[in-house]
Specification:
Structural class: alpha/beta
Strand content: 15-25%
Radius of gyration: 22 Å
Helix content: 25-40%
CATH class of the largest domain: Alpha Beta
Low-confidence stretches: none
CATH topology of the largest domain: Rossmann fold
Number of helices: 17
Distance between the termini: 66 Å
CATH architecture of the largest domain: 3-Layer(aba) Sandwich
Oligomer: single chain
């Protein structure tokens, strides 16, 4: 591919990503991967260059652009080398006109910047959310240990006791250690959030929003395969991905339960009031994961944020019904917005006087309301809010 053809390919990919953002379709990384598979003629350097330009444009544009061309044009207005590639050559983009509309540059939509500011997230922290994330793995203690594991590359030891960090793009899923379940890809912040939950061998633990099971597997390792671990979700497809992952990791104690939205307690009535730990890794805006999914800023609206908050309240109330006296509720969101973190826990503590905030001791993070916040700028992790609540009833 010529450099100009790479630009045109990025424009067309961005058109697909913008359309998906407007209708809540496939994420950008999946669309980029599908493009690479369907354009076999493009060499590895071409695919890398197109991907980098696409994500550069996503990170640079605040609002959803009118088109992929408008997004790349916004970059070209400030990059002479890129502007020169709008040359009308075969397979390249047509020249830009002087009055052509371009996308607005900025970190995020105005309303979101204001919401971040109200949540104590400054511009430096917001900028860190839009940098590319490294690749973190957790050594699976059911099969290995960080101190003795041998990997094709030496990772950087992290504060989490089994965490290792590698450069972005490291192909760990091609390693024998990954195929044999000795390591799992998991952001450092997610590892620390699981550490805060303090799951112990022999406990009854409910992972209320397990999804594909990343945190479930971390809980199983912490429990040393001893006890009862119930992984729940309302999404059959995502929950189905957990079984092969659990088999690979050697986590034999995991039960799965598909829940019916709004009727979750019916499927969990046999364990109501008996759980030692209920993990609520709640559905949220994902503002803390923009390093990996920067187009998420184009998908969020005030109305959608309010729906997330309502769901989080409902799940926290459900967790309070499932936990036993003396047990714990761990609440986690990968968001830096108080509407999904601090405010939700404070609201729960007003509604439910049997719960109380418990201290969290982690090597990273800072106190935030009744919980703790992890952030990319300060901690080098995805953005998380974590709270631990004790049931004193």
């Amino acid at each position: 591919m010529t450099p100009a053809a790479r630009v045109q390919a990025a424009i067309e990919l961005l058109d697909a990503i913008i359309a998906a953002a407007r209708r809540e379709g496939a994420p950008a990384d999946r669309l980029v991967a599908e493009w690479a598979r369907s354009h076999r003629y493009a060499g590895s350097k071409d695919r890398r260059a197109v991907r980098e330009l696409v994500f550069r444009a996503i990170r640079a544009c605040s609002e959803v652009p009118a088109s992929g061309r408008a997004a790349i044009a916004a970059l070209a207005r400030e990059d002479a080398a890129l502007l020169a590639l709008f040359d009308g050559s075969p397979y390249g983009p047509a020249p830009l006109s002087a009055d052509e509309a371009v996308a607005e540059l900025g970190l995020a939509p105005t309303w979101l910047i204001e919401a971040f500011a109200a949540s104590g997230v400054d511009s430096d922290e917001l900028a860190a959310l839009l940098k590319r994330a490294p690749l973190d793995v957790r050594v699976n203690t059911l099969k290995a240990d960080r101190a003795t594991i041998e990997l094709p590359e030496a990772g950087e030891p992290l504060a989490a006791p089994q965490g290792l960090r590698f450069p972005a793009g490291t192909l760990v899923e091609q390693w024998l250690a990954w195929r044999d379940g000795l390591i799992e890809v998991q952001d450092h912040g997610s590892q620390l959030a699981c550490l805060a939950a303090a799951a112990r061998p022999g406990e009854t633990v409910i992972d209320l929003c397990a999804g594909a099971g990343g945190k479930t597997l971390a809980l199983a390792a912490a429990m040393d395969n001893s006890g009862r671990l119930i992984a729940c979700d309302i999404d059959r497809t995502r929950l189905a991905r957990l079984a092969p992952r659990a088999a690979r990791s050697g986590a034999g104690l995991i039960e799965t339960r598909l829940l019916d939205p709004g009727r979750e307690l019916e499927a969990l009535s046999d364990v109501e009031g008996t759980a030692d730990l209920v993990l609520v890794d709640a559905p949220c805006s994902g503002t803390g994961t923009w390093r990996r999914k920067p187009e998420a800023k184009w998908r969020l609206t005030p109305e959608r944020l309010a729906r997330f908050a309502a769901t989080q309240d409902r799940l926290l109330d459900l967790a309070a019904q499932l936990v036993r006296p003396g047990g714990r509720v761990a609440y986690i969101t990968c968001s830096l917005l108080d509407e999904e973190g601090r405010d939700r826990v404070e609201s729960l503590l007003v509604r439910n006087k049997t719960l109380e905030a418990l201290p969290i001791s982690l090597p990273l993070g800072c106190a935030h309301g009744a919980g703790l916040r992890l952030s990319p700028s300060r901690d080098g992790t995805d953005g998380f809010f974590v709270a631990l609540l004790g049931c004193a009833c």
